[in-house]
Design goal:
Blueprint (H helix, E strand, L loop, with lengths): L2 E7 L2 E3 L21 E3 L1 H18 L5 E11 L3 H11 L3 E6 L8 H15 L3 E5 L10 H9 L3 E10 L4 E8 L2 E8 L2 E5 L11 H7 L4 E4 L32 H9 L6
Parallel strand pairs: 1-4, 1-6, 4-5, 5-11, 6-10, 7-10
Antiparallel strand pairs: 2-3, 7-8, 8-9
Helix pairs in contact: 2-5, 3-4
Length: 261
Amino acid sequence: MSSLRILVGCKRVVDYAVKIRVNAGQTAVETAGVKHSMNPFDEIAVEEAVRLREKAAKDAGPKVEEIIAVSCGPAKSQETLRTALAMGADRAIHVEVDDKIALQPLAVAKLFKALVEKEKPNLVILGKQAIDDDAGQTGEMLAGLLQWPQATFASRLNFEGDNAMKVAREIDGGLETLSTQLPAVVTTDLRLNEPRYASLPNIMKAKKKPLAKMTPAELSVDIEPRIETLKVTEPPKRQGGKKVESVDELLEKLKGEAGVL
């Protein structure tokens, strides 16, 4: 293999700086009138795809033939895809889903599988999780459906020749380094890179880059939710701490008031 075709996931989520509130019906978080942006881990995925192309230009890896950004969600997801195009993706695919349907990880993995079979990429890069549901499952499910190797929570990625890569991944005990053949699925962690800001000229160019629209039905994918959310509530407010004068007093409060000993 002398060239790469990279498929990158770009989910539209409530912006990380927004203070989340539960909606009146306690069915989900409030999204009406709330700022949205690209999932931060997906920004890292797009950035890494662009950097791989830049490295190839310096003879530091296989040539990147094309970067395809994909988002599954409501019509406004196209704004997220335009951001990815401004960052350096070549074209985008929007799988449009009614905003009343909550896409679950398995459904998204199936949609990506159908797109992989259609577009024939040899590398899929996804964020390790989305900050709205924190499921952290889509990449792993996609690898399982495709029967491809996976390297999750990547904090460093380097190619070994044209058909293999070495990935350092973050684990509880530190770093674990994997070597894998392509095609493969990689999910990105925070320390992999720092995403660039899209420049104004690139934002203008992104408006002219191709953005294709399709539906789950066109991909023959069932997106019917398999898990039902019964209720969403805010966590209880934390109580203020208390100072104690001695270890004995601490033990007394832990045994009596707190009831934890």
